[in-house]
Amino acid sequence: MSILISLLPVIIFLLVLNSLDTFKLLRPAIIFSAILWGSICALLAYPINTYFFSVFDEYIVIGFTAPFVEEFLKFTFVALLFYKNKLGFLADALIIGFASGTGFSIIENIFYLNQINSHNLMLWAIRGLGTAIMHGTATAISAVITQNLISKREIVKSGYLVLGLAIGFLIHAVFNNFFLSPLFQTVLQISILPLIVIQIFTKSEKSLRNWMEEQSSSEFELLRMIKKGDFKSTRAGKYILSIKSRFTPEVILDMLAYIQLNIELSIKAKGILLMKEAGFEPEKEEEIKSMLNELDFLSKSIGKTGMRTLSPIIRLSGKDIWKLNLLK
User: Fold this and answer.
1) Half-sphere exposure for 313 (CA within 13 Å, toward CB)
2) What is the pLDDT of residues 41-69, one digit of tens each?
3) Is 215 inside a domain boundary?
4) What total number of domains does the chain contain?
5) Between these two residues, 322 and 259, which has the higher pLDDT value?
C-alpha cells in the first residue's frame, strides 16, 4: 500500500494533465523523454546533495542547496526544448515540466521506500501527494512562466529561463522549509493546483486559437494571390521587387518558391491542429516530408543573408519555427 500511495498520485496527475490537453501537440516520445530525464536527475542529485550535507548545515541543504540543484537539473531538459522550438504553448510547457518532475519524484520515492522501513500511511501519503506533486509542480511552473515570457517576444532569452527557474526554486524552497505543517502544505497544494491547471489550459487554448485566426486569413489571401499571378501587387511582392537588385535572379526565384512553400506548410500545420482539436490523429504524409526537405534546400540555396532579408515576410522564430517542427 505504501508503494501505491507514494508513487501513483504523481503518475495519475500527469496522465490527467495530458488528457486535458485538447490539441495533444506533444508526442508521447517527448513526454517519456522528460520522465526519463527527471529520473536521471534524481540519480545525479543524490551524490551532489550528499556532498553538500558534508559541507553545509542540514537545514541549509534541505532548504536551499538541494532545491536549487534539483530544480536546475530537472529544468535543463525543458530549457533544451525551448531552444529547439519544440514547445509552442503554455499547456505543452506545463506537461513537459510536470513530466520531468514526475520522473524525479518516482526515483526519489523508490529510494525512500528502500531506506525507510515504515508502514505509516500518512508519511507515504505526504510523500506521494505532497513532495512528489511538488516536484512536478515546481518544474511545471518554471516552464509555464518561461513559455509565457517567450511568447510575448517570440524569442528565447537566457533571462527568461533564469526567471522561470528562480520561481521553481522558490516554490521548492518554501515547501522544504516547512513554514506550514507537511500535512497542511499537502492539502493546500492539491486544492490549489487543479485551479491553476485549468487557468493555464484555458489561456493556452485561447492563445492557440487566436494565433491560428490571426495568421490564417492573411496566409490564404497571399497564397491565392501567388497562384493567380498577382503576387507583385501584394505588399510582399512589392518588397521582393525592392530588393531584386541585391540578389541574382536565381536567388530571387528561390525566395519566391520559399515563400509559397512556407505558406503551404503553415496552412497544413494549422490543418493538423484542427484535426487534433477534433480528436483525430493525422497520418504522416510523404508529401509533407518532401516539402520540408525542399524548404530546407531552398533556405540553404538562399543563404543566411537572403533569409534575413526575407524576415519581414516570413517570420523565422518562435511559433513560426514551432509549427514547422509540428510537421516533422
Assistant:
1) 27
2) 999 999 999 999 999 999 999 999 999 99
3) no
4) 2
5) 259
